[in-house]
Design goal:
about 550 residues; seven-stranded mixed beta sheet; five-stranded mixed beta sheet; globular; single chain
């Protein structure tokens, strides 16, 4: 297969990696759940108007959604995938500030990917963001790519990538575009955000020269949440030229941090307006309903039930998490001969710990089904050397066998690039719990994938350049002693705690090529905008 192109076209490369200016224009975050709540409240308010609104919502077929679990740890919970589309060609009216479809800005990516977890057992809500540059095996039907490239092949492909590679079940999808975001903010009459320091982004157009509480309309709010090349005038900087200001080290991850804060401010603004206000509700719904796209199974009655169940959720206390990643430092990743620009690799066990926290399950639970993971002895595993490093497959197989997995063969796979992820491949959906059990036994740059396995195994591990197999905890030791004259001996059981991991291969990735794993929750930077107090001061 030839290397993928970079424009997102059907015949081009598997990843859209446009030039810096084009990339910057695509960044946006959405108040997705807030929009959805307003829509369904009004749908539920009047049957006639509800029918009209329901007819205006666009629906798309997403065939691989996971049915809501009825038993196990996942019962009474569901996950809604919220997608921010970059499609300019789908906009009602073209806007040069976003890039024009007529001028070739026609890539379709999901630069904002958030999952809303609704736990019906305690009526709590949590949000998980997936960084757009995370490199995953099933991003495209034909193979690996950044996860933001999946949307070009439709919402179903993005759902597949999240379910197959990250093991997060998706019950519904909601898709919004640039217009939806700006229209919601304008329908609210704008929002207020406090800027502690002057900030500037040449790509999004953000230019705040004076600190303080600033009123933002939809267009200017869009500049805030699109900014990912932010420069700031820190204390001690005397130049008034933004080009001389320092630039924050993070890009996409910093944008996610700000988008989480914006989502909180937007939700609090809607709450303050009152969802029972007919005028506000109608303005909000009218502004967004024609641009709202949901999966075919997400009915109006489903939406109404969600509002009734979760209307009392604590906005301020809603956890907003981000999957930890290792960020590349080499500039442009080459995979199977194709160039993919900046990428991020997974980081285990950090990723799985955050996913388990987000879903409210334990490490012994399969996230897709909510049932217990299988015992290692019931899982057949083959290991393929994916890097060419000496004896890597045999050493890894020996370590996994020591953990109790049933090893059925070893071999070699064609190297895909240097560095390379370690991929835990499973044959079909029925084998997914087995793959989770194996993946949970590995640390480093490890990710799952659905695909062909070798030697008839349920799971095949294709080794990468930076991973280890977790250590086997030593058995407990028991000693029995009897004091002089005692009628009964005393039995003492001692358990020695083993190291977390033991290396099975020498990593070929130097420490300078990836950052340390990023945190799942990152505090706002001193220059990040945040909420305002009622008096116009800096909010919490």
């Amino acid at each position: 297969m030839p290397p993928a192109k970079t424009d997102g076209s059907p015949s081009g490369p598997r990843h859209a990696a446009p030039k810096p200016q084009g990339r910057a224009k695509r960044r946006i975050g959405w108040g997705l759940f807030t929009v959805g709540v307003v829509v369904v409240v009004l749908i539920g308010a009047a049957a006639g108007y509800g029918w009209y609104l329901n007819s205006k919502i666009h629906r798309v077929k997403v065939k691989d959604l996971t049915p809501q679990a009825t038993a196990g740890a996942a019962a009474q919970s569901e996950n809604i995938l919220m997608i921010g589309s970059t499609s300019r060609c789908a906009l009602t009216q073209q806007n040069a500030a976003y890039g024009l479809c007529s001028q070739g800005v026609n890539g379709v990516n999901s630069d904002v990917v958030m999952i809303l977890h609704l736990d019906g057992s305690n009526h709590t809500v949590s949000v998980l963001s997936i960084p757009r540059d995370l490199f995953v095996p099933n991003a495209r039907a034909e193979g690996a790519n950044k996860i933001d490239a999946a949307l070009y092949e439709g919402p179903n492909q993005l759902v597949d990538a999240i379910q197959e590679d990250l093991g997060i079940p998706i019950q519904h999808t909601v898709l919004l575009n640039f217009d939806s975001f700006a229209n919601v903010v304008d329908a609210l009459g704008g929002i207020n955000m406090y800027f502690p320091e002057p900030v500037f982004d040449a790509y999004s157009g953000l230019n705040v020269q004076t600190p303080g509480c600033i009123h933002l309309d939809g267009f200017h709010a869009l500049q805030v949440v699109r900014a990912r090349h932010l420069q700031y005038k820190a204390p001690g900087v005397t130049s008034t030229n933004p080009a001389d200001w320092p630039q924050e080290a993070e890009s996409d991850l910093a944008r996610i941090r700000r988008d989480h804060e914006f989502l909180r401010v937007l939700a609090e603004t809607v709450s303050a307006k009152g969802l029972g206000n007919p005028i506000t509700d109608q303005q909000l719904v009218s502004s967004v309903v024609g641009q709202l796209t949901v999966d075919q199974s997400f009915t109006a009655s489903d939406m109404i039930k969600l509002v009734l169940d979760y209307h009392g959720a604590n906005i301020a206390g809603t956890p907003q998490l981000t999957i930890p990643v290792d960020v590349d430092q080499f500039g442009s990743y080459t995979y199977q001969g194709g160039s993919y620009g900046d990428v991020e690799f997974p980081s285990e066990p950090n990723d799985q710990n955050v996913i388990d926290q987000f879903l409210g399950i334990t490490a012994a639970t399969d996230p897709m089904t909510g049932t217990a993971l299988p015992a290692p002895s019931t899982v057949t595993v083959s290991v393929l050397n994916g890097t060419g490093a000496y004896n890597q497959a045999a050493t890894t197989a020996f370590a996994l066998g020591g953990l109790g997995f049933h090893i059925v063969g070893t071999g070699d796979a064609d190297p895909v690039g240097d560095p390379a992820e370690t991929v835990v491949t499973y044959a079909n959906a029925a084998a997914e719990p087995a793959a989770v059990a194996v993946a949970n036994s590995l640390s480093g740059q490890v990710i799952m994938a659905m695909g062909p396995t070798s030697n008839g195994a349920a799971v095949t591990v294709v080794t990468g350049t930076d991973f280890s197999v977790n250590a086997l905890a030593p058995p407990a030791t028991t000693t029995t002693t009897a004091a002089k004259g005692a009628k009964k001996a005393t039995t003492t059981t001692t358990t020695t705690v083993a190291p977390t991991t033991t290396s099975t291969t020498e990593a070929t990735v130097s420490n300078g090529e990836f950052t340390a794993p990023t945190p799942s929750v990152e505090a706002l930077a001193p220059w990040d905008p945040r909420s305002c107090t009622a008096s116009g001061g800096e909010g919490p």
